[in-house]
Design brief:
heterodimer; A: alpha/beta; Dimethylsulfoxide Reductase, domain 2; Rossmann fold; Barwin-like endoglucanases; 3 domains; six-stranded mixed beta barrel; 18 helices; 19 strands; about 15% strand; B: alpha/beta; eight-stranded mixed beta sheet; seven-stranded mixed beta sheet
Chain lengths: ~525, ~650
């Protein structure tokens, strides 16, 4: 997030796009309710009539996969109606003119048939966003998991910059991270293309800096997860070590994923339970849960928070950092970490934004990075006064339609997501009776009109087929989903929706378009 | 105790007193800061005086989040069952409890310790001594003064301390409290009753300082008039079902029972706190849920503000405000009360019928046969299994302890049947009082427990608790015509009374048995019904959707057959077991024919779990279907909120 969670309560407009906030980030949802109490407006963009829409002042039931067209049209309206902040654009940013030219044709009338929204709805969103002083954008995977995911986020950045909604309280563009430590994992370079702190391996100073602490090491870019599974399938990648991830359920095109896992000569899976993925492993390393270890999590507002061990690890399991330590030793490396605090000392040394974040300082309340020095108070709002790169860069993001589209064979769009009571692939939540009881099995949400057309009754088994595969799921008939659109949660191994999703990737960073798959629906005989 | 004894304690002596108590019994004191205050053993934690209230009500010490009920072990000689109600931490003194929580304890005492005595609660409660420390300031959402449970503790404590400048006024409420005084006698000085006046003055000051004041005089009337108000939809839209509100409530008593199988041949049954705010609390195996999103959210509020008090005479809400504090979507019982009052002020609406009547049932105080306590079943052995229909089996069982058969009293309507390691299901008793030496059950394979039961063989062991529930009033049926209406497996509950009626045929008028199902194969008691139809004055009618060659049947609904019975309707009692919607349709037609709603007997087979009015799953309005029902008159049924 460019801004902080508490700032949501002071916003005058909250634009929620592709985020089921109350169900997936309930405590951020709480701040939305606080803002509404104070008179804020709530605008929601989502193909499902999520709970928030019951409280929204405007709701855009968008066609899945078309966020970019919607955002570009908002930008066009704002330019057309001269609602931009010229001073901010001139003093803080560059490349504005290129964007202006690129969206000239993106009128609401142009976007209407693409997004299946009315031109008036698009204008209303654009005007209110541009005219409201404290306007905050919240988004999640509903924006990112599309073939235009990166472009859409860059377009949101354009939108925020041209209206001076960056670097001030209760503004900004705010991705709500889906996991407690996904921010921290990224910061620490659980990414193929960076070293910790988003430092490019190609920079000479990066190599030099890390070599001082780590000694000589290979400093090459890796492959992302999609590429890795391709390399496994091609027989090029010979071994894989998976820590705390369950790709059999969470990655697209399950058939391909399983095929690759079966093929790879050596697979290690480290997790707290025997997951669907771990069943394919040659070696399973039992990891300790969050209650059984010390360390830090970095949350969605970049706040590094301390966690403390409540119980000793059960059985043979060990904290992840201990397991990794032991493996490093066994492959002949010298390691002398004795505690997570000691690992943090090294992070202080190598990652500038974490430079001043020590366990000692976060005993009571966490600190938000960037926090470069031991006396720095942390940074609740990014890009105040100046962008990290100096001037904010406007980018041209032309709309294009790639990946799955409706066709005669596959007339429906399938979108995936979660329910309140389960987390991700259910490795933990499906083992807890009180959560599993609430949603013991998966379902497919379908609009009453479509159900009537296809002769589908409530709870009836429905067959859903994409170009990749087929699954069946009981129907949940609801007008909370767009017509000709269906929704299936991905928590349930029995209804593995990722058997249907495809490997349509965002061309820039290869994130799979899990939110958009063309499917066909029929009653399962 | 006849009189309330008074003492004073110097403030600086408090620690010395706590130390003395702690030498004998662990003393738990408030510890932590701001919103995170918990009761901790004083040996392990720093005591604080700077707190408004405990984060969780003190109830968690006597009704723990997870408690073992019993263990079972399969051995050479059968299955051994051991009651685990007494497995807990032991004696404790709980210091620093506020009035809202002591009031909550007074209510939970009433709830758990009367009628079907809860052995787990009793065991924990006996070992706990509660020292209240009266509040001098209010939290943001405190409203005990509005509901009348505070601001100072009046009930539920053993000792109550009130801070009067340099000293505490100490009031003794129970013998347990006096024991504490006696244990540290030298620090306590007898006090003059004048101090009670000082306390009262202070109480008024504190009460006036409360920011939140509500006039709840007309609350029940306001509630009756806003049962169907529009604002409930907003509340329902906001609720994400996190169950935080019920987890922090001092008067929430519901629980769910879970099997924890440790090995193939042994395990435990445990209970956890459960919440009416989770969607599945009332949902059954076949998707039917008597509560939708609106009635789910509304039920909690009505239970707290009305149903509990209606039934037990105690306030169901002690005004602690915790539910409002914790709600992530700002659902507030306070705002809801305001919304009710405002709605009634702004628009005249008629009160909902089911919120006006004060139908009260005598609360059954039935002796439980089991010597192992309420939740531990008696072991029984299956003697025979019979395939009744393609989906229904009949099971004959005998208690392993033959004396249980000797003492067996045929009252009630159902048993709770345990499959060890799998769970428990309520099954109706399809036999009359003549059945002394064995018990018989008919069941359909619909859920995880019945699935295992379905596969069981003679010689296999099960567990039995019961009988529970209010059965059909056999004696009052004498001399009357009887119409039995049962659809599919629902004929089983009716057989409890049908059997003795046929045994004493001469005591009754005409007997009409109406069996309905989709197909003939779906009916139970096919052979029996053929036999019954041979008895003089007994007619069996069939209403089936699909035609059959087996019997003469009407193709259609059972309702179609009613007018043709040509009974003297004023002298007829109908006994109906079907889905609620079918019951309503049948009752409506019977009343058109001239029957009184009080002569139509129905059984409401809802989500019964514990059988004893404790777990809360089958509560409808202020009534527990398992204790007050499942048999009701149609007249009574119509006074229940439509959530069954």
């Amino acid at each position: 997030m460019t801004n902080s969670i508490d700032e949501v309560s002071d916003a005058d407009l909250i634009l929620v796009i592709g985020s089921n906030t109350t169900e997936q980030h309930p405590l951020v949802g709480t701040r939305i309710f606080e803002a509404l109490e104070k008179g804020a407006q709530l605008y929601v963009v989502d193909p499902r009539k999520i709970r928030l829409t019951d409280f929204a002042h405007a709701y855009a039931p968008i066609e899945p996969g078309t966020n970019l067209a919607f955002i570009n049209a908002m930008i066009q309206v704002i330019i057309e109606e001269d609602l931009v902040d010229q001073h901010f654009i001139e003093t803080r940013t560059e490349n504005y003119e290129a964007v202006k030219a690129s969206v000239a044709h993106c009128t609401p009338e142009w976007a209407a048939p693409i997004t299946r929204l009315s031109a008036e709805t698009i204008r209303q969103f654009a005007r209110t966003y541009a005219k409201t002083d404290k306007a905050m954008i919240l988004f999640t995977m509903g924006v990112t998991q599309q073939t235009t995911g990166v472009k859409s986020i860059r377009a949101l950045a354009n939108l925020a910059m041209m209206t001076n909604h960056v670097g001030r309280p209760s503004t900004g563009i705010n991705p709500l991270r889906g996991q407690n430590n996904v921010q921290g994992a990224g910061d620490m370079a659980a990414l193929p293309n960076y070293l910790p702190g988003y430092q490019w391996p190609e920079w000479p100073e990066t190599k030099e800096r890390f070599s001082k602490v780590w000694g000589d090491f290979s400093c090459l870019r890796g492959n992302n997860i999609i590429q890795m599974f391709d390399l496994m399938d091609e027989g090029i990648m010979k071994a894989m070590y998976i820590v705390g991830e369950n790709p059999v359920l969470s990655d697209p095109d399950q058939t391909h994923t399983i095929h690759a896992l079966e093929k790879i000569p050596f697979l290690v899976v480290q997790d707290i339970f025997l997951t669907e993925t771990a069943r394919y492993a040659d070696v399973v390393l039992p990891a300790a849960s969050f209650l059984e270890r010390d360390g830090t999590y970095t949350n969605t507002e970049r706040r590094v928070q301390l966690i403390r061990k409540v119980i000793e690890p059960v059985g043979d399991c060990k904290p992840d950092w201990v397991i990794i330590n032991e493996i490093m030793k066994r492959i002949g490396m010298t390691v002398d970490y004795e505690s997570p605090a000691q690992v943090m000392d090294e992070i202080n040394l190598l990652v500038d934004s974490y430079g001043g974040i020590t366990h000692e300082r976060i005993q009571e309340v966490g600190l938000q990075w960037p926090c470069p020095t031991k006396d720095h108070p942390g940074t609740p709002i990014l890009h105040v006064g100046e962008f990290k790169r100096g001037k904010g860069l406007f980018t041209v993001n032309d709309w294009e339609l790639i990946g799955d589209q409706r066709s005669e064979a596959f007339p429906f769009i399938l979108t995936t997501g979660r329910v309140t009571h389960h987390y991700h692939t259910g490795t933990m939540t499906r083992k807890i009776w009180t959560l599993d009881r609430e949603y013991p099995k998966g379902f497919v949400e379908i609009h009453p009109k479509d159900a009537a057309d296809l002769g589908i009754r409530e709870h009836q088994e429905v067959r859903i087929t994409s170009a990749r595969g087929t699954i069946t799921a009981p129907a949940m008939i609801t007008d909370r989903i767009n017509e000709k659109t269906v929704f299936i949660p991905f928590h349930f191994a029995e209804i593995p929706v990722n058997r249907l999703t495809g490997r349509n990737l965002d061309p820039i960073i290869n994130i799979p378009a899990l939110k958009v798959s063309a499917v066909r629906i029929e009653v399962a005989s | 105790m006849s009189e309330r004894r008074l003492y004073t304690l110097k403030k600086e002596s408090l620690n010395a007193v706590l130390e003395i108590w702690n030498q004998q019994t662990p003393v738990y004191v408030p510890s932590g800061r701001e919103k995170d205050i918990t009761l901790q053993p004083m040996d392990e934690a720093q005591r604080t005086e700077d707190y408004i209230n405990l984060t969780l009500p003190v109830k968690e010490m006597v009704f723990e989040q997870k408690e073992a009920l019993f263990s079972w072990e399969r051995g050479e000689s059968g299955i051994q069952v051991e009651n685990l109600a007494h497995r807990h931490a032991g004696n404790r003194i709980l210091y620093g409890v506020r009035a809202c929580d002591t009031y909550g304890i007074a209510y939970t005492d009433r709830f758990y310790l009367k009628e079907f005595l809860d052995p787990n609660y009793q065991s924990r409660r006996e070992t706990v001594t509660i020292v209240a420390v009266n509040c001098l300031r209010a939290g943001k959402h405190c409203f005990c003064t509005s509901v009348g449970t505070g601001v100072f503790s009046t009930i539920g404590h053993d000792l109550a301390l009130t801070e009067l400048e340099e000293k505490y006024l100490v009031e003794v409420a129970t013998e347990k409290g006096q024991d504490l005084i006696d244990a540290a006698a030298k620090w306590f000085a007898p006090a003059v009753s004048q101090l009670l006046q000082d306390k009262e003055t202070l109480r008024q000051q504190v009460e006036e300082s409360f920011p939140l004041k509500m006039d709840l005089t007309n609350l029940w009337d306001d509630m009756a008039r806003t049962f169907d108000a529009d604002f409930w939809l907003d509340e329902a839209h906001a609720c994400i079902g996190c169950t935080g509100c019920t987890n922090v409530c001092p008067t929430c008593t519901c629980f769910n029972v879970v099997e924890e199988k440790q090995q193939e041949d042994r395990g435990e049954r445990v209970r956890y706190w459960d919440s009416c705010q989770s969607d599945h609390f009332t949902r059954n195996a076949e998707h039917h849920n008597p509560r939708d999103a609106v009635s789910r959210v509304r039920y909690r509020i009505y239970d707290k503000l009305k149903y509990i008090e209606e039934r037990f005479g105690y306030k169901g809400c002690s005004g602690c405000g915790r539910c409002t504090d914790v709600c992530p979507t700002y659902i507030s019982i306070i705002d809801i009360i305001h919304a009710m009052q405002q709605t009634v002020r702004e628009q005249a609406t008629e009160p909902a019928v089911h919120q006006m009547t004060a139908m009260r049932h005598e609360i059954f105080d039935r002796e439980i046969n089991s010597r192992r306590g309420l939740y531990a079943p008696d072991v029984a052995t299956i003697t025979r299994m019979k395939q009744e229909t393609p989906e229904i089996k009949r099971m004959f069982v005998k208690y392993d302890d033959p004396s249980l058969h000797e003492h067996y009293q045929h009252k009630g309507q159902f048993f709770q049947v345990t499959v060890f390691g799998e769970g428990e299901v309520p099954l109706s008793i399809p036999y009359g009082p003549e059945q002394q030496d064995e018990l018989v059950f008919d069941f359909k394979n619909v859920g995880s427990v019945t699935e295992v039961l379905y596969q069981m063989q003679p010689g296999d062991k099960i567990g039995l608790r019961g009988p529970y529930g209010r059965g059909f009033p056999y004696e009052t049926l004498k001399g009357r015509n009887l119409v039995f209406v049962g659809s599919g497996v629902a004929m089983a509950p009716l057989r409890t009374v049908l059997e003795p009626v046929l045994q004493h045929r001469e005591d009754f008028g005409r007997v009409e048995i109406m069996a309905s199902a989709l197909r003939y194969e779906k009916l139970i008691y096919k052979e029996e019904m053929k036999a019954w139809s041979q008895v003089a004055g007994v007619t069996v009618h069939y209403a089936l959707k699909d035609p059959t060659d087996e019997v003469k049947a009407h193709n259609g609904y059972v309702n179609d057959l009613l007018p043709g019975l040509n009974l003297e309707w004023q002298n007829t009692t109908a006994l109906v077991c079907a889905s609620p919607s079918r019951i309503k349709k049948v009752a409506k037609d019977l009343m058109t024919l001239g029957m009184k709603p009080s002569d139509i007997l129905v059984t409401l087979e809802t989500h019964m779990r514990c059988g004893a009015g404790k777990c809360g799953h089958c509560k409808v309005g202020s009534h527990y279907m398992c204790v007050d029902g499942p048999v009701f008159t149609y007249e009574e049924m119509m006074t229940l909120p439509p959530e069954y």
